[in-house]
Design brief:
about 180 residues; mainly alpha; 3 helices; rod-shaped
């Protein structure tokens, strides 16, 4: 029995090895027909499909490279605009600072002018007040001399009992007032 089993297994193994090889290798007629069909399909693909595919790929490549070039141009233009805007912003800031500085200088100059004008007017008012006070003092002294002179002549006339010479009396009054001013 063991022999029978071994023989059966061995026969089965031979059948499997011969049938496996036949499964892998096609029949020669099928092999020739497959090679011929592959050659015909390869020829048509190589002659018509491959050039069309290559043209499509080249067109796509050119479109992509054109889009990349446009994108690069747009990027360069955007960077240029950005630098222009930054320059304009810097110019605007410097112009604003310059305007502020000019306004500050103008305000300081106006303040200085107003102060000097006010001081000038104050000096003018003081000088006028001094002149007015001096004139008023002179007028008051003149009025006082006249009144003192008249009163002293009347008084002296009453005391002495006679009229004094007006010129002599005026010289006496002037000397007395000069002595009073010197005190």
């Amino acid at each position: 029995m063991q022999f029978l089993i071994a023989a059966t297994l061995l026969a089965q193994e031979e059948v499997e090895t011969t049938s496996n090889v036949s499964l892998v290798l096609p029949e020669p007629n099928e092999l020739i027909a497959g090679i011929l069909a592959f050659s015909i399909v390869f020829f048509f693909v190589w002659k018509w499909a491959l050039p069309t595919l290559n043209q499509t790929l080249e067109a796509r490549q050119q479109a992509v490279s054109g889009e990349l070039a446009d994108a690069e141009k747009a990027k360069v233009e955007a960077e240029s605009l950005l630098s222009d805007y930054r320059a304009q912003l810097a110019d605007a800031k410097s112009e604003g600072n310059r305007i502020l500085e000019d306004a500050r200088v103008t305000a300081e100059q106006m303040r200085t002018d107003l102060l000097s004008k006010a001081e000038s007017e104050a000096d003018s008012i003081r000088n006028k007040a001094r002149d007015d006070a001096s004139a008023e003092k002179s007028r008051a002294l003149s009025d006082a001399r006249t009144q003192v002179g008249d009163i002293s002549i009347d008084l002296a006339g009453k005391i002495v009992g006679e009229a004094l010479d007006a010129d002599a009396h005026q010289a006496l009054i002037d000397r007395y007032l000069a002595d009073l001013e010197n005190l």
